[in-house]
Write a structure and sequence with these properties.
heterotrimer, A alpha/beta (292), B alpha+beta (100), C alpha+beta (436), A: 292 residues, alpha/beta, Rossmann fold, 7 helices, C: 436 residues, alpha+beta, FAD/NAD(P)-binding domain, D-Amino Acid Oxidase, Chain A, domain 2, six-stranded mixed beta sheet, 20 strands, globular, binds flavin-adenine dinucleotide, binds iron/sulfur cluster, flavoprotein (chain C), FixC-like (chain C), ETF-QO/FixC_UQ-bd (chain C), FAD/NAD-bd_sf (chain C), oxidoreductase (chain C)
Chain lengths: 292, 100, 436
């Protein structure tokens, strides 16, 4: 089992300070660390490898010299090989180009890894795009927002039981087989604290650096960078309008209405069928509601 | 020499100050207070000396939280009854100053 | 034991003491481990901070003045006696402190400590961050390494330098230092306020990279023993109060309330107006002076910097970083000598104490050994600053009535609060503590 983990150095959330008036982020006070969700992705990969008793974990990052820190953390935690991609122009790349570079690097090996782990989002821009885009470039199925992961052997084959996080506290359980890409939420597990010998070895390791532009399969569509940042500001809490609870209800139900803000349960409809039929159904639904 | 009419001093809540500090909170507390000893401690120095205001007596009982500790060691020096078991948090955890 | 876990010297703590020691040792070609519990050097460290005698480091690092992240060099020093609603200042400035090696520079520890440690790393030391040293390892009476709080956490070296700062746990565990009392230790709380470069230069009368270091006594800390400081950085101010822990507990005031009071004192408020607080921090200072200095060595172990209470805290002086650097360097030289002779016994390592005795470190501390007790005198802390302000007020007051001669005005102010005898005795003690 070959597992690849994509990591990123990002400012630790508790070190991000936004000026309440100007909305400016004070970058001087950042503490750069291994992005929390990525650390969980790495931990998940290591646990899987240990459970299977065989395999290798390859940790990959795209970033400037300082971000070697995160590869050293990965090595100390137990990654078998590490590599950094960098080109000065990459400082301006958006998530799609970054994913294209990572894809090109993974394609450079004779075969693709059986499993790829990414963090669901990074603490800085939280676009949550790199993982899904990477899966798309590599033509792999993907599961995002993983908050539970169990591995089973099913007649000699690996079967993953995955719990993913949906909005409003909903959960989805899935069964999946590799090859596959998973993006991991930062609550999945608690990353380990490396032993001293591993920590020392990692501090002393030399790290391979590759230029993504020199990778033969790197085909970035720079035009496709669709994101434009218009403005950054601190979210202002929206005024919450509370409906006055129905006086006919019992106190218990009234409290319930107040704390749920009077939202009713979602009207959900379960549709079954082949992927094509489902897609048609979805498009029909969106048209019906005027979304497309 | 200046002479200006003195205004009453406005105290900034300590929580507001601590919001500016970065903490990486470990699950395991690095300070433990043996609160039985606090019941008959008259002066309760820890309550006054802690620069993060983490010691509080509520309803006659000592309440302590370690999460926003600045790791100065003052409480440990001030507590004459040695009711405070003090250690550093795990390496890399706890407080990190950035602008001081 | 793996070769990986064997070093020639282990230095605990990447503060000024530890990083300077590691730098010298690594340059001499030894295998050095520099262990730091913070995520990066400086993460846990707080100073005012004026780094005095930066020449100590500039001698070692030729690129110091181009590279070192210092904020401003000090050309203006102010000592202010605060009364309740008045202030009396001595304001000194000189161009003689305006050329390298400056007399003092302001720094911010997280930046400065990181940089200094990076110099040790460039010289070849292995910086092990995010790792707490829990204890020393012994073979018989001899220290042979340290135990870190990680799995398989033992590291070995024939000599360990404990530069682990004010709490001094390693020296205590090694039986060199005793438990501290609350009279010997002070607590410093500090804020960094952003004001902008222009405002700082205008408000404090500075040009270019000039800076000011200002100390306050008297009402700065109310009835609590201690003082306050205000230093200029490039575009921020560092200000804080430093108070004796025992006195804080007795007076039942919280340190951050003192900080608020200081910031809002009529003589200070205009200086900090519109400042945006960036960070709040706190740290202990071993201010006990001469009596607090532990035994400095035992076989295989040297103690340096704050861990050895080598802080020069004598009223208007608060110098710790330069003492830390100098003691770190002396410890490193001693460890080098021990390596040359292959002898790490207490007898060889005692050369460390001799080196310190020959330098300003122990000489200053011994010469001013009476000062801590003197500055903690109640009258000096509260009464005299207030009286000084009152006397000045008498002198300057103009009410359209006949005035008395100045001498009798001042004496009259003093005499209504203290007896002549007490005054003389305090004067004598001041002389012994500071002048002769
Ligand atoms: C508010 C305040 C203002 C001050 N102002 C000034 C000033 O203006 N000028 C001046 O010269 N001095 C000043 N000082 C004093 C000065 O800060 C200290 O004297 C100086 O920091 C001592 O340096 P050090 O290297 O000995 O210890 P520290 O700087 O404390 O370094 C010790 C290092 O060891 C690490 N460490 C500790 N224990 C362990 C462990 N078990 N394992 C691993 N790592 C460990 C710590 O994280 C730290 O990095 C001030 C102090 C305070 C609190
Ligand atoms: S000083 Fe010690 S004994 Fe007294 S209240 Fe505080 S922790 Fe308890
Ligand atoms: S170490 Fe300092 S900040 Fe932490 S609890 Fe004790 S006194 Fe408070």
């Amino acid at each position: 089992m070959r597992i690849a983990v994509c990591l990123k150095q990002a400012p630790d959330c508790s070190s991000v300070y936004v000026d309440p008036i100007s909305g400016e982020v004070d970058t001087e006070r950042f503490v750069q660390t291994l992005n929390a969700a990525d650390a969980c992705a790495l931990e998940a990969a290591l646990r899987l490898k240990e459970q299977l008793g065989a395999g290798s974990v390859f940790a990959l990052t795209l970033g400037p010299g300082e971000s070697e820190e995160v590869l050293r953390v990965a090595l100390a935690m137990g990654a078998d090989t590490i590599e950094r991609l960098w080109h000065p122009s990459a400082a301006d790349w958006g998530p799609l180009t970054i994913a294209a570079a990572l894809a090109a690097r993974l394609r450079a090996d004779p075969s693709l890894p059986d499993l790829i782990f990414c963090g669901e989002q990074s603490s800085d821009w939280a676009s949550g795009t790199v993982g899904p885009a990477l899966a798309a470039y590599l033509g792999l199925p993907q599961i995002t927002g993983v908050i539970g992961l169990e591995a089973h052997q099913d007649s000699g084959q690996l079967l993953l039981r995955v719990t993913r996080r949906l909005e409003r506290g909903y959960r989805e359980r899935l069964l999946a087989r590799p090859p596959l890409l998973l993006t991991v939420h930062e609550t999945l597990n608690e990353p380990r604290y490396p032993s001293l010998p591993a920590h020392l070895a990692a501090l002393r390791a030399t790290i391979t650096v590759r230029d993504p532009l020199s990778l033969p399969q790197f085909a970035a569509d720079f035009e496709a960078e669709e994101t434009t940042i218009v403005e950054v500001r601190t979210p202002r809490p929206r005024p919450h309008r509370l409906p006055i609870p129905d006086s006919q209800l019992s106190p218990f139900e009234r409290i319930g209405e107040i704390i749920t803000g009077g939202t009713s349960r979602r009207q959900a409809r379960l549709v079954e069928g082949s992927p094509e039929e489902l897609a048609h159904e979805l498009v029909r639904f969106l048209k019906e509601r005027g979304f497309v | 020499m200046q002479q200006i009419a003195s205004e009453p001093v406005v105290m900034q809540p300590i929580e507001e100050r601590l919001e500016l500090v970065r903490f990486k909170v470990d699950k395991r507390p690095h300070i433990r207070v043996h609160t039985e000893a606090c019941r008959d401690c008259d002066l309760t120095p820890c309550v006054y000396v802690c620069p993060a205001g983490l010691f509080e007596i509520l309803g006659g009982e000592m309440h302590f939280s370690y999460e926003h500790c600045l790791e100065c060691g003052t409480c440990y020096v001030a507590c004459e009854r040695k009711a405070i078991e003090w250690d550093y948090p795990r390496g890399g955890w706890g407080v990190s100053f950035r602008a001081s | 034991m793996h070769a990986q876990q064997q070093f020639d010297v282990i230095v605990v703590g990447a503060g000024p003491a530890g990083s300077s020691a590691a730098l010298v040792l690594a340059r001499a070609g030894l295998r050095v481990a520099l262990i730091e519990r913070g995520e990066y050097p400086g993460a846990k460290n707080v100073s005012g901070a004026v780094f005095y005698a930066p020449g100590l480091l500039a001698e070692l690092l030729p690129t110091f003045w181009d590279e070192a992240p210092f904020e401003r060099y000090i050309t203006r020093r102010v000592l202010t006696f605060l009364g309740k609603e008045s202030a009396f200042s001595l304001d000194f400035r000189t161009r003689h402190f305006a050329t390298p090696p400056y007399n003092g520079v302001t720094i911010l520890r997280p930046k400065f400590d990181r940089w200094l440690a990076s110099k040790a790393v460039e010289a070849g030391a292995l910086l092990i961050t995010s790792t707490v040293v829990d204890d020393l390892l012994y073979e018989g009476e001899r220290v042979i390494g340290v135990q870190c709080r990680r799995d398989d956490g033992a590291l070995y070296a024939p000599v360990v330098i404990a530069a682990d700062g004010a709490n001094s746990f390693l020296a205590k565990k090694a039986g060199l230092q005793r438990e501290f009392s609350a009279e010997e230790m002070s607590l410093g709380v500090k804020e960094v306020l952003r004001l902008g470069e222009r405002t700082i230069e205008e408000r404090f009368n500075l040009t270019g990279d000039e800076g000011m270091a200002s100390e306050y006594v008297g009402e700065a800390t109310g009835s609590v023993k201690g003082g306050a400081f205000l230093y200029t950085n490039r575009d921020t101010l560092s200000l804080g109060v430093i108070v004796q822990i025992a006195s804080l507990a007795q007076q039942r005031v919280r340190p951050y309330e003192l900080l608020d009071r200081f910031k809002q004192h009529p003589a200070v408020a205009p200086l900090v107006r519109d400042g945006v607080t960036l960070e709040y921090s706190a740290h202990m200072i071993p201010e006990g002076g001469w009596q607090l200095i532990p035994r400095l060595v035992r076989a295989g172990l040297l103690v340096a910097g704050d861990a050895a209470a080598l802080v020069f805290a004598a009223g208007i002086f608060l110098e710790g970083m330069n003492f830390a650097v100098a003691s770190g360097l002396a410890a490193a030289e001693t460890a080098l000598e021990a390596h040359r002779h292959g002898d790490f016994s207490t007898a060889t390592l005692t050369g460390y104490r001799k080196r310190l005795e020959q330098s300003f470190v122990l000489q200053d501390l011994q010469r001013f050994r009476l000062t801590p007790a003197f500055v903690n005198n109640e009258r000096l802390q509260n009464l005299y600053p207030e009286l000084l302000c009152q006397a000045a007020e008498q002198v300057f007051r103009s009410e359209g009535r006949p005035r008395k001669k100045l001498g009798s005005t001042i004496l009259a102010t003093l005499r209504c609060k203290v007896s002549l005898w007490t005054l003389l005795r305090d004067g004598w003690q001041a002389g012994r503590a500071l002048f002769f």
